[in-house]
Backbone:
């Protein structure tokens, strides 16, 4: 086995803004792993360089055509990266990424945004059935056999 | 004093823009607002609807004061500098958001370094009028809590069957 084959491959995906900033705060947990990032916009590439970064289309649940474009792009990306683990901090791109990742055999983790203090987001709720682990950042939202609380991005 | 105002790009937030503009009329400050889809047109401050992510980050990291909606990207980036930020939550009942989560988020994050919450435009105006630039407060580290990092490291390291058990762990 070469070193490359032994290193765990992670695909880390989120939409822009706060979701991306929260994903960046998880980076110490990715140390020594081969991480590929995907998010919205070009400037985010600079945040993670020299790690590979792929731009994905911005889309939310109201934009059906854009969602299809996003789905195709993420499908291509998962096939290309062949991740062992897919990690997402939401929202729609994260949900699609964990679904596709799981179909192709990756372990999947969805961390709901710290902005969701009163109830889980739609994407986190949708991701529940397709994730090995869903985390909430608020203890009140944790459930037995459901989302777990294991600390926050703060 | 350089002040940066931002309300993101998705939904209008005229209450915030108008309150800052009213303050800017008499303030001795250099104010720049990123107004998104606001219909209110500022008269007393420089503004643009949309700026690049790089420009926004530069402002957020260096302005003497940031005034913003309760967007997590802005809040986290700003609190990493320890410099002051005033946050006014959007209200869904006024058509400013899809749900009331900004109000809950703002309340729960009020303890962050440099962060002050203004519940409405009157509070915001008064806080702006009383504002004096302070030295940097304590900065927030740009990494997640050790507890969360440990949980994610563990998830990455363990095989699938163990991960499944992890999800059935105790709820606290």
Residues:
């Amino acid at each position: 086995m070469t070193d490359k084959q032994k290193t765990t491959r992670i695909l880390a995906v989120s939409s822009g803004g706060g979701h991306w900033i929260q994903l960046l705060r998880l980076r110490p947990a990715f140390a020594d792993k081969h991480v590929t990032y995907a998010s919205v916009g070009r400037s985010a590439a600079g945040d993670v360089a020299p790690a590979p970064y792929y731009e994905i289309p911005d889309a939310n649940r109201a934009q059906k055509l854009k969602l299809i474009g996003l789905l195709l792009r993420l499908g291509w990306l998962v096939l290309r990266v062949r991740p062992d683990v897919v990690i997402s901090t939401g929202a729609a791109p994260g949900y699609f990424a964990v679904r596709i990742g799981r179909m192709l055999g990756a372990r999947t983790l969805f961390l709901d945004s710290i902005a969701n203090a009163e109830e889980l987001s739609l994407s986190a709720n949708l991701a529940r059935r397709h994730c090995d682990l869903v985390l909430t950042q608020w203890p009140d939202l944790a459930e037995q056999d459901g989302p777990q609380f294991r600390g926050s991005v703060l | 004093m350089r002040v940066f105002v931002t309300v993101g790009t998705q939904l209008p937030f005229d209450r915030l823009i108008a309150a800052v503009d009213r303050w800017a009329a008499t303030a001795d400050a250099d104010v720049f607002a990123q107004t998104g889809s606001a219909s209110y047109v500022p008269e007393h401050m420089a503004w643009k609807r949309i700026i690049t992510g790089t420009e926004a980050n530069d402002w957020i990291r260096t302005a003497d004061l940031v005034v913003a909606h309760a967007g997590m990207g802005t809040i986290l980036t700003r609190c990493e500098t320890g410099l002051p930020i005033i946050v006014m939550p959007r209200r869904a009942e006024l058509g400013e958001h899809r749900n009331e989560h900004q109000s809950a988020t703002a309340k729960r994050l009020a303890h962050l370094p440099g962060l002050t919450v203004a519940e409405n435009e009157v509070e915001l105006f008064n806080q702006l009028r009383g504002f004096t630039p302070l030295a940097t407060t304590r900065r927030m580290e740009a990494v997640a809590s050790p507890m969360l990092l440990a949980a994610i490291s563990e998830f990455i390291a363990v095989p699938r069957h163990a991960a499944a058990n992890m999800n059935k762990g105790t709820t606290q």
User: Anything to note?
Assistant: DSSP finds seven helices and six strands in chain B.
